[in-house]
Amino acid sequence: MKIELLKSRVWMAALWSGILLLLGGGRADASTLLFTNALVHTVANGILTNGAVLVESNVITLVFRGASAGTPPPAIPPGTVWIDVQGRHLYPGLISADSALGLTEIDAVRATQDSTEVGEFTPEVESWIAVNPDSELLPVARANGIGYFEPSPEGDVVAGQSALLALAGWTWEQMIVKKPAALHIFWPDQSLNITPKDRLANPAKWKAFDEQDQDRRNKIRSLEDFFDDARAYIRTEDFGALRAGRASEKIPAWEAMRPYLKGELPVVVHANELRQIQAAALWAATNHLRVVIAGGRDAWRAASLLASHKIPVLYEHIFTLPPGDTDAYDVQFRAPEVLHRAGVCVGFATGRGGFGATMSRNLPYLAAQAVAFGLPEEEAIKGVTLYPARMLGVQSRVGSIEAGKEATLFICDGNILDIRAKVTRFWIAGEEVSLASRHTRLYERYQARPPRAGRGF
Question: How many domains does the chain have?
Answer without folding.
Answer: 1
